[in-house]
């Protein structure tokens, strides 16, 4: 299949590489020329704009940052919609507000483009391995068209419901992972400040009800003090903001998410925004009076 890919960052680069490895003809665009180089070297074609990508393909995927970025590449000057034609399917895999995804779907449909929201979970590791969990909102027909592309990038591919449903699932995912990273950091900091080896505590917890993938993977990276992103803290702040905005629109009480969102605000405010979200451990250490950190 001819597939376009827009946005070649931590996630987008390996996802596009997996499409190539799956035998698809891939056309890419990134706003910085150097981001395109690894894909061109692997056999992808380069395009001069999102519109030029859309002209060459049947399915166009975006993996950028937030809703204004998706709007820009889809509906902006030289955006995908300017090359609109019947049958084109646009898939956004970034994490954005469900309401923004529904709005984009309606505006793109008015131009003849069927739009899917298809955010992912599984991190950079899952993007490289092609084992992402993909949560899809939109029509069954568009889902069927895009499915061969999803199959190269993910393992657990769920058509959750209509437009916006994929982003609702992703926001729910970010409640669990945002709170989870914070609780793992709290537990390891608690162990260390109690004078007990946090590595042994993690090992003990892994066999019981406290087990989680976050304790296993993120917990190990906390012990290694490997704060290289991964998933940047400002992105997790964005996602907790999506959760809180949606809760506000719905009049929902999400007390644990609200407290967690404040911690991610504080991470960005304390200069940790470009570090991985596990650097929340550093924030807890500072708040607990740690004298030095690395
Ligand atoms: P990233 O490394 O910052 O990559 C985002 C890419 O999008 C960058 O290359 C950026 O270009 C490009 N971009 C952003 N805004 C753009 C715009 N307006 N026009 C053109 N290009 C634009 O971020 P990432 O970690 O890959 O995350 C991408 C999306 O996936 C986000 O929505 C994030 O929440 C979600 N996500 C991330 C993870 C993870 O573990 N990293 C996991 C699940 C979901 P520049 O390089 O020029 O800035």
Automatic annotation (TrEMBL):
Keyword Oxidoreductase: yes
Pfam family for this entry, one: NAD_binding_11
Domain named 3-hydroxyisobutyrate dehydrogenase-like NAD-binding: residues: 164-284
GO molecular function: 2-hydroxy-3-oxopropionate reductase activity; NAD binding; NADP binding
InterPro entries reported in the protein's UniProt record: 3-OH-isobutyrate_DH-rel_CS, 6-PGluconate_DH-like_C_sf, 6PGD_dom2, 6PGDH_NADP-bd, HIBADH-like_NADP-bd, HIBADH-related, NAD(P)-bd_dom_sf, Tartro_sem_red
Top-level EC class as recorded in UniProt: oxidoreductase
Active site: 170
EC number: 1.1.1.60
Keyword Endoplasmic reticulum belongs to the record: no
Any Gene Ontology biological process: organic acid catabolic process
Membrane-spanning intervals of the chain: none
Keywords: NAD, Oxidoreductase
UniProt cross-references to PROSITE patterns, sorted A to Z: 3_HYDROXYISOBUT_DH
Domain 6-phosphogluconate dehydrogenase NADP-binding intervals: 2-161
Highest rank taxon of the organism: Bacteria
Family to which this protein belongs: Belongs to the HIBADH-related family.
Protein name: Tartronate semialdehyde reductase, NADH-dependent
Organism listed in the record: Candidatus Accumulibacter aalborgensis
